[in-house]
Write a structure and sequence with these properties.
With about 375 residues, the chain is α/β, with parallel strands linked by helices. It has 2 domains: about 120 residues, Aspartate Aminotransferase, domain 1, CATH 3.90.1150.10; about 250 residues, Type I PLP-dependent aspartate aminotransferase-like (Major domain) (Aspartate Aminotransferase, domain 2, 3-Layer(aba) Sandwich). The protein contains 11 helices and 13 strands. A 7-stranded mixed β-sheet has the order 2-8-7-6-5-3-4, sandwiched between helices. Strands 9-10-13-12 form a 4-stranded antiparallel β-sheet, with helices on one face. Strands 1-11 form a two-stranded parallel ribbon. Helix 4 links the parallel strand 3 and strand 4. Helix 1 runs antiparallel to helix 7 and helix 3 runs parallel beside helix 4. The longest helix has 21 residues. It is globular.
């Protein structure tokens, strides 16, 4: 199988991650910090080390690294944990995932807040100056943006958006599920929270993700349970990270993340993704009937290209690539409810998303291109 569904989850993982997961399953599958025995204490140290590795990426305090089971869970903790009032204005880009939009819809119905889509030009994909006028007229309580679109690979101008929002004291939330650990520019972003997903850009396994708290904005606790400490107190502890981390830690997934973070420190993922994306675009752009969804500056799309082929629905293309050529791509709407109207892909029933990673090759792209030429 040629695998081009890395925006969903990166595959394969580095060999060192597989070895770490196997070792953890066999030798470390205990409740860290919940026992007085040596192994539990050792695992607590490894969890602390992994927090530090995450924190080092964005120069944060390791105690503000909150581990959750998924980026969706992390975003729910942030969105449902913020304090909302009727009439609050929440700004999002047209590129957001349902892990943002569905919790926001719940908040909208519960608190009668306003969800406002930031205006982007549908040719250049640059944010419109009109956005800053909107901020002045309807002050942002919160801005939530992806660092990179999971549908198109477009790197959003988050520095510009968040900097402007801070003029109005906005709470900024960055969904970096597609780029944490790869895109070094996110360390410069003025954000209050940043979300990461282990099984995506961090090349770790399912079951480990989280968020980093980067300011004094407080969150209400929305999950309650045991933390292995202060057990006679029926209230959740106030100190971080325990305040937001009830339940047993997924030590196996954390050990995989620990190893992947060390691997990422010495691996230039984005350089390889840029090279493969440009190569793929240049190969596909001249094929008749192929529509590629990119802005004027094609280089703003990294790691992901969405396409369609005239005469086929996105699902039909995906099925042919799978059944006849053993090529795995993702088709449909990709859990992104706003972007398909923006890029005009609704009549194809979404897009054919081709997403590469560090382990893909130009030879695999050549095989994809030859397969597309047969349609």
């Amino acid at each position: 199988m040629i695998y081009f569904d890395n925006a969903a989850t990166t595959y394969p993982k580095p060999e060192c991650v597989y070895k770490a997961l196997d070792k953890a399953n066999r030798e470390m599958a205990f409740n860290a910090g919940r026992g007085s025995y040596k192994k539990a204490k050792e695992l607590s140290i490894k969890i602390d080390e992994t927090r530090q590795l995450v924190a080092d990426i964005i120069k944060a305090d390791k105690n503000n690294v909150i581990f959750k089971t998924s980026a969706t869970s992390a975003l729910n903790n942030i969105i449902l944990g913020l304090k909302w009032n009727e009439g609050d204005n929440i700004y999002v880009s047209p590129f957001e995932h349902n892990s943002v939009m569905r919790p926001l819809e719940y908040i909208k119905q519960k608190f009668n807040v306003n969800i406002i889509i930031l205006p982007f030009d549908n040719i250049s994909w640059n944010i419109s100056d009109e956005a800053w006028d909107m901020f002045a007229l309807k002050r942002p309580k919160c801005i939530i943006c992806s660092s990179k679109s999971n549908v198109t690979g477009y790197k959003l101008p988050i520095n510009e958006i968040f900097k402007e929002g801070k003029k109005y004291n906005s709470i900024n939330v960055l969904d970096a599920s597609q780029s944490f650990g790869i895109d070094r520019d996110i360390t410069k972003v003025d954000t209050d929270f940043i979300v990461f997903a282990g099984h995506k850009s961090l090349y770790a396994s399912f079951g480990i993700a989280g968020f980093v708290k980067l300011s004094n904005v407080d969150l209400e606790t929305i999950e309650f349970g045991g933390t292995g400490s202060d057990s006679l107190n029926l209230n959740m502890p106030e100190e971080l990270p325990n305040k937001y981390e009830p339940s047993s830690k997924n030590i196996i997934a954390i050990m995989g993340l620990n190893e992947s973070l060390k691997w990422l420190q010495k691996t230039d993922i984005e350089k390889k993704e840029k090279e493969l994306t440009e190569y793929m675009y240049n190969k596909l752009k001249n094929i008749p009937k192929v529509r590629i969804y990119v802005p004027t500056n094609k280089k703003k799309c990294v790691g992901i290209l969405s396409i369609n082929i005239e005469g086929y629905s996105a699902d039909e293309v995906g099925s042919i690539l799978d059944e006849e050529f053993d090529i795995a791509v993702r088709t449909g709407y990709h859990c992104a409810p706003l972007v398909h109207n923006f890029i005009d892909s609704l009549h194809f029933n979404g897009t054919v998303r081709i997403s590469v990673n560090y382990f893909n090759s130009k030879e695999e792209i050549d095989k994809l291109v030859e397969a597309v030429k047969t349609l």
